[in-house]
Design brief:
DUF309 domain-containing protein, Hyaluronidase domain-like, about 140 residues, DUF309, mainly alpha, TTHA0068_sf, single chain
Length: about 140
């Protein structure tokens, strides 16, 4: 469990590696460990990342209705940290994330059958120049 900045950074980066490998459940688990112990200004940011991973996990497993619900809540958390946070260009990431979910968001069906398009799955790439961005 993270008790200092170094272990928190390690969990943040480990979650990103899982996320970029499309191991969304694992990314969620790692970031949840970080979120559980963290009490600072980035708590909602981490919660947004957790929910983004969960939304993509649901979408990839065909739970489109659940994916849409968690997508919308994740945006509520992450939008607050625009334009960038912890090295992540949120403007670019959220644009990719929205593109991935475009058919889900446009659907009016109660139980839509929409398949995730692998090429549209967002990735997290950190920019060292944005490392301190978003901290309160």
């Amino acid at each position: 469990m993270p008790h200092d900045a170094e272990s928190g950074d390690s969990l943040y980066l480990q979650g990103i590696r899982f996320f970029n490998d499309c191991e969304f459940f694992e990314a969620h688990e790692v970031w949840e460990e970080l979120w559980t112990e963290y009490r600072g200004p980035l708590r909602r940011y981490y919660q947004g990342l957790i929910q983004a991973a969960v939304a993509l996990h649901h979408f990839g497993n065909g739970n489109v209705r659940g994916a849409k619900k968690v997508y919308l809540s994740s945006r509520g958390y992450l939008d607050d940290f625009r334009p960038a946070c912890q090295g992540l260009d949120l403007e670019a990431f959220l644009a990719q994330y929205e593109s991935c979910f475009a058919d889900v968001l446009a659907s009016t069906e109660e139980f839509p059958r929409i398949v995730i398009v692998p090429d549209l799955i967002p990735e997290i790439h950190l920019d060292p120049a944005l490392a301190g961005a978003g901290e309160a």
